[in-house]
Write a structure and sequence with these properties.
mainly alpha; 56% helix; 162 residues
Length: 162
């Protein structure tokens, strides 16, 4: 045993815990005066007779708080607008910039239409090049729809090539 005093302390602590366990009081906190005052207020609020009205009181307090906030905001806005001298006259729409019946120029429309026409022409040219390259418009002969095989002979001598 390396630490006999520590072992003795642990054993006495375990024994004290067992005695407290047998007596039924494992933990007894001591509250400060401030904590007791807070606990007293909380238990008064949650008295069984007041439990039904608790949510109503909370909602009423929230409505009062929101009303006070709105009143303070309106007061600040009034103070901010006190120095303003501009007074608009609502009711009439502003006059149109372009007289009715007159054509309105749309910026960039002519360039857009020009580009669309250029793209259309490029597509036509592409289709024409593809038709020419792949011979899609070739006319086939109706008299000979297939290749006619002809007999042939392979030459074995080199004299035939000379």
């Amino acid at each position: 045993m390396r630490d006999p005093r520590g072992k003795a302390r642990r054993a006495s602590a375990v024994e004290a815990w067992r005695r407290a366990e047998e007596e039924g009081r494992t933990f007894a906190p001591r509250l400060s005066a401030a904590s007791e005052a807070i606990a007293a207020r909380v238990t008064d609020r949650l008295h069984p007779a007041d439990q039904a009205t608790l949510s109503e009181r909370v909602q009423a307090e929230m409505r009062e708080k929101a009303a006070r906030r709105a009143a303070a905001l309106a007061e600040r806005e009034e103070e901010a607008l006190a120095g303003c001298t501009f007074a608009p006259t609502p009711g009439r729409p502003p006059p149109p910039r372009v007289p009715p019946g007159e054509a309105r120029a749309i910026k960039g429309l002519s360039r857009h239409l020009e580009r669309k026409e250029l793209a259309r022409r490029r597509e036509e040219e592409q289709r024409a090049r593809e038709a020419k390259a792949f011979n899609t418009a070739a006319v086939r002969s109706t008299t000979t729809p297939f290749t006619v095989p002809c007999p042939f002979s392979l030459s074995q001598s080199r004299a035939a090539y000379a």
